[in-house]
């Protein structure tokens, strides 16, 4: 099978890739198992040294990798560089902390000795999306490989060039062969990979539909999954918030990566008293974003990664307007490009409220008071994260238990950080990435009990 990646900005072909035959795939799976047998015996300090080197390879080649990201999925080049550098950061983080995370945990009992050890489990398959094509892979690979597992990557077909480069990062860093392998495969081959005896667990970042399909197959084979799925984050602005600062945060929260992020703020829930001021300042800020070629240093907003994504966003805009939302800015689509769009007077029942919108569309929603704002925020099947903007920090902290999502950020956009657990609730998935939690997902926390 042949694959092709295409620059969404100009439609030019970026690369051609040949898919693995069934025989090649079986060979790669066998090699992954073989590599695991020796990789698990490599000392932790050596594994950490290699991870540090991987971070250095990323830093040394930031321009080349950032260029591939931008060419394949249209992210503005400055954001692509930031993504590659963040991958280097997550390598450093686990290289520096793996020993502390993986050390035996003593638990006192009546035994002579009792403790929990952290053993690797084998090959972990990652099914990853195109929106942060490097970051999503490194945040799984850094802890998972360092814990002594081997990695298999099934990346999104529109970023197979990135997938190839990621495999090269590990090779250049000096990892033993087959500890990390990129699999150029079609979706149809996924079931075979998941059910193969070599694969012990699966991590997926993607849509609710993909998550459910993968978890179903994995469940049949009693294999663990970590799922990081869609989101419809609320960005709540209280009456007392610093509006200029909130607008600045809101702009990045919604427009980073051209809005193509699960944790992007999508529903802006504004107290009635500040609704007009926030909407007018936010509209001005969004209208000043410079659209254009994502390879251009000054571009703030590029195309969406594929035309079907722009079509889908446009449908959500059109449907919401039919349902009564007011078009305040943008609204037009041209191939993969969709104008940054703001809809006012959005209420539950409209597409822009109920559905995840994966692009530069911001829904402005009025709330009567704080209780109403939290009630609106909770009116979502997703649960990735919520932002609250306010000057009353203590009150905001007190209200953190009103949010059932996986994250609650005050005066900051919901973002991932290697030091903090990352993941969702409800239809946003389960399990945690990053921090110690992320490393614990794919180890056998083994109870050791020793009696004299
Ligand atoms: O679609 C999910 C985006 C996650 C971005 C991040 O981890 O920062």
TrEMBL record:
Active site: 228
Alphabetic keyword roster: NADP, Oxidoreductase
Presence of keyword NADP: yes
InterPro entries reported in the protein's UniProt record: Ald_DH/histidinol_DH (IPR016161), Ald_DH_C (IPR016163), Ald_DH_CS_GLU (IPR029510), Ald_DH_N (IPR016162), Aldehyde_DH_dom (IPR015590), ALDH_GabD1-like (IPR044148), GABD/Sad-like (IPR047110)
Record domain Aldehyde dehydrogenase: where: 3-448
Pfam families for this protein: Aldedh (PF00171)
SUPFAM superfamilies, per the entry: ALDH-like (SSF53720)
Gene Ontology MF: a single term: succinate-semialdehyde dehydrogenase (NAD+) activity
PANTHER family per UniProt: SUCCINATE SEMIALDEHYDE DEHYDROGENASE [NAD(P)+] SAD
Homology family: Belongs to the aldehyde dehydrogenase family.
Protein name: Succinate-semialdehyde dehydrogenase/glutarate-semialdehyde dehydrogenase
Organism: Ulvibacter antarcticus
């Amino acid at each position: 099978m042949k694959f092709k990646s295409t620059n969404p900005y100009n439609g030019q072909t970026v690369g051609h890739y040949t898919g693995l035959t069934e025989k090649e795939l079986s060979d790669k799976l066998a090699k992954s198992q073989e590599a695991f047998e020796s990789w698990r015996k490599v000392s932790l300090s050596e594994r950490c040294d290699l991870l540090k080197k991987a971070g250095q390879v990323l830093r040394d080649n930031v321009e080349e990798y950032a260029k591939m990201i931008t060419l394949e999925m249209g992210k503005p080049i400055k954001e692509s560089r930031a993504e590659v550098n963040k991958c280097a950061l997550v390598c450093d983080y686990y290289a520096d902390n793996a020993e502390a995370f993986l050390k035996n945990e003593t638990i006192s009992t009546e035994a002579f000795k009792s403790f929990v050890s952290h053993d690797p489990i084998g090959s972990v398959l990652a099914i990853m999306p195109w929106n942060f094509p490097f970051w999503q892979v490194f945040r799984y690979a850094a802890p998972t490989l360092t814990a002594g597992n081997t990695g298999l990557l099934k990346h999104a077909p529109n970023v197979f060039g990135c997938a190839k480069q990621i495999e090269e990062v590990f090779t250049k860093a000096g990892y033993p062969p087959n500890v990390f392998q990129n699999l150029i495969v079609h979706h149809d081959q996924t079931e075979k990979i998941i059910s193969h005896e070599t694969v012990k667990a699966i991590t997926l970042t993607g849509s609710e539909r993909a998550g459910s399909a993968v978890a179903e197959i994995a469940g049949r084979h009693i294999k663990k999954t970590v799922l990081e799925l869609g989101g419809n984050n609320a960005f709540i602005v209280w009456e007392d918030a610093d509006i200029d600062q909130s607008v600045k945060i809101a702009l990045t929260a919604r427009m980073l990566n051209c809005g193509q992020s699960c944790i992007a703020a999508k529903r802006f829930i504004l107290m009635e008293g500040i609704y007009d001021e926030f909407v007018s300042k936010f509209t001005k800020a969004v209208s000043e974003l410079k659209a254009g070629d994502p390879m251009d240093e000054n571009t703030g907003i590029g195309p969406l990664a594929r035309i079907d994504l722009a079509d889908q966003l446009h449908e959500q805009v059109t449907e919401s307007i039919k349902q009564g939302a007011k078009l305040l800015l943008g609204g037009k689509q041209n191939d993969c490009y969709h104008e940054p769009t703001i809809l006012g007077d959005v209420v539950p029942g409209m597409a822009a409220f109920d559905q995840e919108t994966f692009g530069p569309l911001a829904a402005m929603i009025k709330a009567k008071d704080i209780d109403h704002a939290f009630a609106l925020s909770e009116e979502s099947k997703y649960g990735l994260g919520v932002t609250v903007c306010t000057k009353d920090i203590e009150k905001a902290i007190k209200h953190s238990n009103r949010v059932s999502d996986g994250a609650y950020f005050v005066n900051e956009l919901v973002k991932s950080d290697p030091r903090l657990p990352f993941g969702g609730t409800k239809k946003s998935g389960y399990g945690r990435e990053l921090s110690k939690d992320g490393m614990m997902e794919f180890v056998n926390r083994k109870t050791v009990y020793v009696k004299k």
